[in-house]
Amino acid sequence: MADKGKKGKAAAAPAPAAEPPPPPPAATPEDKKGQDDKNKKKANLVQPKNEVGTRKGCRRYKWELKNSNIDFWLKGHALVKIMSLGCLIAAMIMFTGTSVHPLLTLIITMELSVFCFFFITYTLAINRYVSFILWPISDLLNDLFAFIFLMGAVFLGVKNRQTMPLNYLIAMVLIGTAGIFALADIGLQTQHFKGKRIKMDVLAPPPKQEQKDQKPMEAGKPPEKAAEKEEKPKGKGKGGKK
């Protein structure tokens, strides 16, 4: 009976507490690199549609090419430039076989080259990588000068001819139409400036290094005026009666 009682007491005794689990091993630099690579891959997979984000290399160029062509074609700039190019090329064809003032051919070829330059720049998204040029302003100025030059060419061509054959007259009409298309492009370019504010102090030069060094030195100096007032003895005292 005594043995049974001892066995019951031993069975009723609580089990020893389990040892706490060992701490997890510290992350090695290789594991950190693997986690960073995974985070970068996740960031590259999810990119904003309206911004470049973290795209680089060919992915960025594809996005810039697509976005530039959407702006160029859907907003009407490409159509206006194509119409101007077509009118000027047709005018050059109409001038064949007739005597033309050399300034007319010079103006037409100059405007053709400028229109082709902007067309290639916007189509290949070169303007997105040459950010130091304000492209909307430069294109607006080009359209303004193109309108002035083409209208001047029409005036010069009509003034220097007493008799105008049919092909010469058609060429003058085409040049004037190209100038009107350039004027229409000015109205399209003004849409880029709506809702935008001018940043102040954009052209201000950066502060010199000497001025930057002087400012922290002045900030670290203790107030000297109050200390000087306390140290100065009172020079004027009340004189007593002698």
UniProtKB/TrEMBL annotation:
Subcellular location: Membrane
PROSITE patterns membership: MARVEL
Regions of compositional bias (Pro residues) in chain numbering: 17-27
InterPro entries cross-referenced by the UniProt entry: Marvel
Regions that span the bilayer: 78-97, 103-125, 132-156, 168-188
Entry keywords, A to Z: Membrane, Transmembrane, Transmembrane helix
Skewed-composition ranges (Basic and acidic residues): 29-39, 209-234
Signal peptide: none
Ranges where the record places region Disordered: 1-52, 201-242
Keyword Membrane: yes
Key word Transmembrane present: yes
Membrane topology: Multi-pass membrane protein
Highest taxon listed in the record's lineage: Eukaryota
UniProt GO cellular component terms: membrane
Domain MARVEL: 72-194
Main localization (coarse): membrane
Name under which the protein is recorded: CKLF like MARVEL transmembrane domain containing 2
Source species of the chain: Suricata suricatta (Meerkat)
